[in-house]
Design a protein that fits this description.
By secondary structure, the protein is an alpha+beta fold. The chain folds into three domains: 98 residues, OB fold (Dihydrolipoamide Acetyltransferase, E2P), CATH 2.40.50; 262 residues, BirA Bifunctional Protein, domain 2; 126 residues, GAD-like domain (Gyrase A, domain 2, 2-Layer Sandwich), CATH 3.30.1360.30. The strands form six sheets. The protein has an eight-stranded mixed β-sheet with strand order 8-11-12-23-22-21-18-13, with helices on both faces. Strands 1-2-3-7-4 form a five-stranded mixed barrel. Strands 14-15-17-16 form a four-stranded antiparallel β-sheet, sandwiched between helices. β21 and β22 form a beta hairpin. α4 packs across α16, α7 crosses α12 and α14 runs antiparallel to α15. The chain is globular, with a radius of gyration of 31 Å. Bound molecules: aspartic acid. The site of aspartic acid has 9 residues, from β22 and β23. Aspartic acid binds next to β22 and β23.
Length: 600
């Protein structure tokens, strides 16, 4: 049976007898004549049940309710004029016609739904607990299609550049990507566990040793970490690795891949190459390694100006090797006390003791409202005005701390000001793609006294810094690592890798991993590096985030068919759940060590 889909029939089909299948989107009774909008994956078609066409169908149509599954056969007719008024619906692609039903089969009735599909629902948990209904909404259906097209575009693009998709294990060994592992107990090896991959990092490097040279995978990754709008315990990466390559080649490849994904997902033409910024500049100017540059509010350095200030909070910070930095939130002097409190709370949560600010009420500094300007001398006031282009109506906010903390504090404050001032409203369609390069290789944790890998332990130091790593000088080492950022979101990140055993061992030593531990946890990769490992590098793109941005959504949950809620639960299938006794029994019985085979 050839059926039409519900977004197919047009005026040209007039007179044809057709069959449509789908769900009753809505039904209306107009003086005993029933109209339904029939919905399927493609769209809507109006069907009308008139007793003169088929009294039986017309009678049955009275029982139709939202979400019943039906099959309708009828004749395509132009929508009539009623009392001189056209009933054409210009909003609908099928709005010129309707199907005058001659037969109706009610395939399956639907119960009253727990929520209406044509209304936005703020209770996300309710949506997720009936996700199979929630996904029927056209917006969600559209998001799944966008995701399909975007994923296909990435696959096609990489395939056309000689990359092959290779699947790597899900039951695997822990690989450090900075999160906790999910563990799966092994029935056959009592007391032993598989770790779900945080990323296929080691496998893809081993594939390079295996001579694959160009690998990719649409790979599911698992990280047991706290959830946010753009994080899920399981998520998908477009994971890529190449041999005999360098940063330039990977950047160029990914620019092409991202452009293809945006073209396929929303028909956007993304100009390449993307701009680049070093990690230092990004932190220094925007206080973030994923800066949103669509609005101004850049961070300025005032350390020189306040180095000898009578305001000891500022001069003291500089004397302690720190900095004084500030931003000017233009036109925001009317900030409310509540908003000041909110900004102060953000600063304090990021390690500041408070938040110094000036509400610029007029040209003359004597009119400024601020708890601190009384400590500034003439030169400081003028210098400040000049450096930050201070004008009436502005709000100046300060941070005085060690460089990285001051940058981070103002980076957060800057984003909150932009949100309070609605600076990004209506600018969702602007795409500011940016590469961040020259990340630090290692970060020092004051509390534990340990160094940790900023990217991951397999990242290669820049050429000049490799000896430093081997000699145990860990400060200020730079990595051959790069992130691609869009509008304040990290879309992906990668690096050129270490491919030599000695250098990898030096990296493990820097991270405080003993030789024995390295042999236990990473022996396979260290060993592989001794059998002719090619130089290699790669990247992973966060597919969920990319699709979220392409679809114009604010949470990755809107572009994942069956996401976990913000507590990590799948509310529909009620997981996680206690294991069934029978599952536990299986585990227990089989995990007891078997009796030794009787000697033959
Ligand atoms: N495995 C890395 C990550 O998940 C990406 C990469 O280095 O290729 O962030």
């Amino acid at each position: 049976m050839r059926t039409h889909h519900c977004n197919e029939l047009r005026a040209e089909n007039q007179g044809e007898t057709v069959t449509l299948t789908g769900w009753v989107n809505s039904s209306r009774d107009h003086g005993g004549v029933i109209f339904i909008d029939l919905r399927d994956r493609e769209g809507l078609t109006q069907c009308v049940f008139r007793p003169e066409e088929s009294s039986e169908s017309a009678k049955a149509s009275h029982s139709l309710r939202a979400e019943d599954v039906v099959e309708v056969t009828g004749r395509v007719e132009p929508r009539p004029e009623i009392d001189g008024n056209s009933t054409v619906n210009p909003e609908l692609p099928t709005g010129d016609i309707e199907v005058a039903a001659t037969a109706l089969t009610i395939v399956n009735k639907a119960k009253v739904l727990p929520f209406q599909l044509d209304k936005e629902l703020s209770n996300e948990d309710l949506r997720l607990s009936h996700r199979f209904l929630d996904l029927r909404r056209p917006r969600m259906n559209q998001n799944l299609r966008i995701r399909h097209r975007v994923t296909k575009a990435a696959r096609d693009y990489l395939d056309s550049h000689g990359f092959i998709e290779v699947e790597t294990p899900i039951l695997s060994k822990s690989t450090p990507e900075g999160a906790r592992d999910f563990l799966v107990p092994s029935r056959m090896h009592p007391g032993s566990f598989y770790a779900l991959p945080q990323a296929p990092q080691q496998y893809k490097q081993l594939l390079m040793v295996a001579g694959v040279e160009r690998y990719f995978q649409v790979a599911r990754c698992f990280r047991d970490e706290d959830l946010r709008a753009d994080r899920q315990p399981e998520f998908t990466q477009v994971d890529v690795e190449g041999s005999f390559t360098d940063q330039e080649e990977i950047i160029e490849l990914m620019e092409g891949c991202l452009s293809a994904m945006f073209k396929a997902g929303r028909d956007a033409d993304i100009p390449t190459p993307f701009e680049r910024m070093t990690w230092h500049d990004a932190m220094n100017q925007f206080g973030s390694d994923k800066p949103d540059r669509r609005f101004g509010i850049q961070i300025e350095d005032l350390s020189d100006l306040f180095a000898d200030s009578g305001f000891k909070v500022f001069s003291g910070a500089v004397k302690n090797g720190g900095v004084v930095k500030a931003i000017n939130a233009k036109g925001f002097s009317g900030i409310t006390t509540g908003q000041v409190d909110k900004l102060t709370e953000i600063a304090v949560n990021h390690g500041a003791k408070g938040l110094a600010y000036i509400q610029v009420r007029g040209e003359d500094p004597s009119t400024w409202r601020s708890p601190i300007t009384k400590f500034f001398n003439e030169e400081e006031l003028l210098g400040l005005k000049d450096k930050l282009n201070v004008e009436e109506g502005d709000l100046v906010l300060f941070a005085a701390d060690q460089w990285e903390s001051a940058c981070e504090i103002l980076g957060r404050i800057r984003l909150e000001c932009a949100s309070m001032q609605s600076l990004l409203q209506g600018r969702e369609g602007e795409f500011d793609f940016l590469w961040i390069t020259e990340f630090p290789l290692l970060a020092y944790d004051e509390e534990s006294g340990n160094w940790s890998a900023v990217h991951h332990p397999f990242t290669r130091p820049v050429d000049g810094d490799q000896e430093q790593l081997q000699q145990g000088n860990y400060s200020n080492l730079r990595a051959q690592a790069y992130d691609v950022v869009l509008n304040g979101h990290e879309l992906g990140g990668g690096s050129i890798r270490i491919h030599e055993k000695e250098l990898q061992s030096a990296m493990f030593t820097a991270l405080g991993i003993s030789e024995e531990q390295a042999a236990n946890e990473f022996g396979h990769i260290l060993e592989a590096f001794e059998f002719g490992a090619p130089p290699h590098g790669g990247i992973a793109l966060g597919l969920d985030r990319i699709v979220m941005l392409i679809a114009g959504e604010e949470s990755i949950r809107e572009v994942i068919a069956f996401p976990k809620n913000n507590k990590g639960c799948d509310l529909m299938s009620a997981s996680p759940a206690p294991a069934e006794p029978v599952q536990l029994r299986d585990l227990r019985i089989k995990t007891t060590v078997p009796d030794p085979e009787p000697e033959a």
